[in-house]
Specification:
This protein is of the alpha+beta class. It folds into 3 domains: about 280 residues, Immunoglobulin-like (Sandwich); about 240 residues, Neutral Protease Domain 2 (Neutral Protease, domain 2), CATH 1.10.390; about 130 residues, Zincin-like fold, CATH 1.25.50. The chain is built from 26 helices and 32 strands. Helix 2 packs across helix 3, helix 3 packs across helix 5 and helix 5 packs across helix 6. It is globular and about 90 Å long. The relative contact order is 0.07. Bound molecules: phenylalanine (PHE) and zinc ion. Phenylalanine binds next to strand 20 and helix 2. It comes from Ancylobacter pratisalsi.
Length: about 900
């Protein structure tokens, strides 16, 4: 067991390792309950470390069998071993070979960290600190070694044996029923990138030739019988590889690249060198079982993990505080890839929606932390929206500030200078300041200061002087551990839209700090002056969401409606409608604060109608326009004493109103976008489906008989999962009378497919009615459900806690109690999944008093439990802190 209240790790305490590992030779003899690992480590003292120090290795639940140093067995007084560490007390201060034999039980590993079994397949997960569950090792990312791995298993049980790097040898173990394979990875890597897989798997393979003509064999391995569902992932992989060559000059560097899909996985996927391991949800797809969103996620995550080969693997992180160095940058890269493969504006809208719903919520609550935290108790809890999504926004701002070429020159230098190293955020930024000759010290605050900047803008047109002035004020609210903040530097993309709806030329006054149409904001208060502005413009601010800030542009209904119809920037055109809807929802939920009041939704209706009738617009974009801000976003706008029921009611009423008011247009759009030909997951076809389905949904929100009948027909006649599942959710949310029959029919049809059953579980968890909690409780006893599988837990309990605000935050507290109970039950089995689920309480302080008290009671109940995992202990302490 690990200490439940470990000392916090601090960035400022970083010291280089005392011992380095140059080579790792592993011999892993797989067995369901007694797997033997023999590790031969070629080590030497680090010239940068403390001379004369012992060799201290990390472990976690390990059992030591034997140990030799330079070939000689070590006596009991020469070392100290516990399940969580191994110390060689007085090693020679020279290169040594340490050989360690340990045993472990993969079948008993329910944490899914280290070596475990998923549906009988042996697989590993080592990030962040899982390698120490396989063998004793200096488990830190700045120890880079060359690995050779021999994997041995029963031939029947594990005919497929995969490792990092290139295959070098395979054969039978003579006189036994066992066989082996040897893999060698020539690229030095930290141990968190180690992986092996052994199992009975089906696979598909395809050749790829890199830009410089090197052949690579690509493989995707899945559970037997599912190989036909891996072809989209394979296609996405090939497109990712080509894109990285073209966009960043990054070429693949091994003879093989393998992906394995497993059913039990804590996260989305893992970028192990040459052997990515995936949650099968992000590999398997067929038109009958996967939605358009699933296809888009598969494409993005395949790309993400592949892109890590350079940003993460060839250049890794010095320590875990630098996590955003690989994650923020790689998310930025996968976003760019998807933007190039699909519609850039629609991708941007989706990314910003995700940022607001997850990251802004995190930044506004007790779990707020900087993109690069300065202290942690449990690193697993820092794989967050802040590190990933806000981290990507920071890289995006860097690109906006430096321009395409300036950004690329910095990236080129980064790849060149730090290849083979474990780097820091400072190393990264230095590359950009050098190639662009700029000082990025103020910009670097984005990595250090937590919280979402609030940006207040007001515009003043001077008719006589024919000038326009923008006054900008930025504030950064206090966050845990950071009461006072400094002003940030950020790019604010701007347009001044004239009365004809066209952008006016921008003539910044001398001394106004702009780069083209981008304002460089760096002071707490700053004004920008523009000359030759003959008419009153409407300002379009933060175009493309150029900075991840909470903007208040002080625009009235008329100006917002105007932007919603005319803004040449698609993001801000979308955003103007969202702001209209948000203001309306805040006042309609009866919780309006001063200044914001749009009681009458007519302007919103008209703006939506205009978009629906504008044939020049991309259907996928119009579908986004039709979808009003989430309950969570409305709650954050209200800020304090939030009543989820009032917000839900306001949102429901608004959607009903929209459905009625837009009826003729929606009915026409629904018919116009009927499917033509067979299903294809491409962005254009998906966009047509999304608009048609958004129309179906708004119409059904009215509860009209014909509208429900339309949804039922849509459900029954669908030839793909996108349409079938969308219609099912429309029915589940709007048609209590047909709901049960439709859910039963769906389950009957797909009951043998766990990933589809997850959709069925998730949907039921989201029904915003008082019966939802009983239904979810009942479903935890359904044979398809298991507390041992993270996907099942997230589908049912996770969705209840994060996507059903009224029922999770029930006034009687039963929703909170249920989720807290689930966290406690899960904690002994899988702490990472438990801790993530507990994160659903993160906005508890903004609730009205009764719900706030119930959340607090339940958090305290969790905190009081004995023997909490470090993961849950950390989240609960920070949540209450
Ligand atoms: N590094 C993985 C990714 O972002 C995420 C991950 C973290 C997976 C920890 C497993 C464990 O792609
Ligand atoms: Zn990643």
């Amino acid at each position: 067991m690990r200490d439940a209240d470990p000392k916090p790790v601090r960035l400022t305490d970083y010291r280089p390792p005392d011992w380095l590992v140059d080579t790792v030779d592993l011999d892993v003899r797989l067995h369901p309950s007694v797997t033997t690992v023999i590790a031969r480590l070629g080590m030497r003292p680090n010239p940068l470390g403390r001379h004369g120090s012992p060799i201290v290795l990390d472990g976690d639940e390990l059992e030591l069998k034997s140990i030799t140093l330079n070939g000689t067995p070590l006596g009991g007084s020469a070392y100290a071993a516990t399940p969580s560490s191994l110390t060689i007390l007085a090693p020679p201060q020279a290169a040594v070979t340490l050989q360690i034999e340990t045993v472990l039980d993969p079948s008993a590993n329910t944490k899914l960290m280290g070596l475990y079994r998923s549906s009988g397949t042996y697989c590993t997960q080592c990030e962040a600190e899982g390698f120490r569950r396989i063998t004793y090792f200096p488990d830190r990312p700045d120890v880079l070694a060359v690995y050779t791995t021999r994997i041995e298993a029963e031939r029947d049980e594990a005919p497929v044996l995969l490792g990092n790097g290139n295959p070098v040898e395979r054969g039978d173990v003579e006189g036994t029923t066992r066989h082996y394979a040897v893999w060698h990875d020539p690229w030095p890597k930290p141990c968190y990138l180690f992986a092996l897989v052994g199992g009975r798997l089906d696979g598909i393979s395809e050749p790829f030739v890199t830009a410089t003509g090197k052949p690579v064999e690509l493989g995707i391995y899945v559970e037997p019988g599912k190989a036909d569902r891996a072809s989209y992932a394979m296609d996405a992989l090939k497109r990712s590889m080509r894109w990285d060559e073209e966009a960043f000059g990054c070429e693949y560097d091994l003879d093989v690249f393998n992906i394995v899909a497993v059913a039990d996985f804590n996260m989305g996927a893992m970028e192990n060198k040459g052997l990515n391991v995936f949650n099968d949800k992000y590999v398997l797809a067929s038109p009958e079982t996967a939605t358009d969103t699933d296809y888009a996620n598969i494409e993005a995550i395949i790309a993400h993990e592949y892109f890590h080969n350079w940003t993460g693997n060839r250049i890794t992180c010095r320590d875990w505080f630098q996590l955003c160095l690989k994650e923020g940058l790689t998310v930025f890269r996968d976003q760019e890839f998807s933007s190039d493969q699909r519609s850039r504006p629609v991708k941007r809208i989706g990314d910003v929606r995700l940022l607001k719903s997850h990251q802004f919520a995190e930044d506004a609550g007790p779990l707020a932390h900087p993109v690069r935290p300065s202290t942690y108790r449990e690193i697993n809890n820092f794989y967050t929206a802040t590190v990933y999504e806000k981290g990507a926004e920071v890289v995006r701002m860097l690109k906006t500030l430096l321009g395409e070429e300036g950004f690329r020159s910095g990236m080129d230098l980064y790849f060149d200078r730090h290849d083979g190293q474990a780097a820091t955020v400072e190393d990264f930024l230095t590359c950009f300041s050098e190639t662009n000759s700029v000082d990025l010290s103020q910009f670097a605050l984005w990595y250090a200061q937590s919280g979402t900047p609030q940006v207040e803008v007001s515009g003043h047109w001077d008719a006589d002087a024919r000038s326009y002035r923008l006054d900008i004020r930025q504030t950064l609210p206090p966050t845990p551990g950071q009461p006072d903040k400094h002003a940030m530097l950020f790019p604010l993309a701007l347009g001044l839209v004239g009365p004809d709806g066209k952008d006016m030329p921008l003539n910044p006054d001398d001394g106004t700090n702009t780069a083209g149409t981008v304002l460089l904001v760096s002071k707490p208060e700053q004004s920008f002056l523009f000359r030759d502005v003959p008419e009153r413009p409407v300002p379009s601010i933060n175009r493309g969401f150029s900075a991840p800030v909470k903007l208040n542009a002080n625009l009235g209904t008329e100006d917002l409606t105007f932007l919603a119809r005319h803004d040449s920037d698609p993001f801000n055109r979308f955003e103007a409608g969202q702001t209209l809807a948000l203001h309306h929802l805040v006042s309609a939920s009866g919780q309006s604060r001063e200044g914001i009041r749009i009681d009458d939704p007519t302007a919103l209706v008209e703006a939506m109608d205009a978009s629906l009738n504008d044939a020049s617009l991309d259907p996928a974009f119009v579908a986004q326009v039709l979808s009003v801000p989430s309950e969570g976003e409305v709650g954050r706008e209200i800020g304090t004493d939030v009543d989820p029921d009032a917000i839900h009611a306001a949102r429901r009423t608004l959607r009903h109103t929209l459905g009625e008011a837009l009826r003729p247009t929606l009915e026409r759009v629904y018919v116009q976008h009927a499917p033509t030909g067979t299903y294809s997951p491409d962005a254009i076809s998906a966009g047509r489906r999304s608009l048609r389905n958004a129309s179906l949904d708004l119409l059904a929100c009215t509860g009209g008989e014909a509208d429900i009948a339309r949804a039922l027909t849509h459900f029954e006649t669908a030839d793909n999962m996108t349409d079938r599942f969308f219609a099912l959710s429309v029915l589940a949310h709007n048609a209590p009378d047909v709901r049960e029959a439709a859910l039963t029919a769906f389950h009957e049809r797909f009951k043998d497919d766990p990933l589809v059953v997850d959709k069925w579980l998730a949907l039921q968890a989201q029904i915003a009615e008082p019966g939802a909690l009983d239904r979810v409780r009942e479903l935890t006893r359904h044979p398809a459900f298991s507390m041992g599988n993270p996907n099942r837990v997230r589908a049912l309990i996770g969705n209840f806690a994060t996507a059903n605000q009224t029922q999770f935050h029930r006034l009687d507290g039963a929703g909170h109690t249920f989720v807290a109970d689930a966290v406690l039950e899960l904690d002994s089995r899988n702490p990472q999944v438990a801790a993530r689920l507990l994160g659903a309480f993160k906005s508890w302080r903004s609730l009205e008093p009764v719900r706030r008290a119930s959340a607090e009671r339940n958090l305290k109940r969790v905190a009081d439990k004995r023997d909490l995992s470090p993961d849950v202990a950390d989240i609960v302490a920070r949540s209450l802190g």
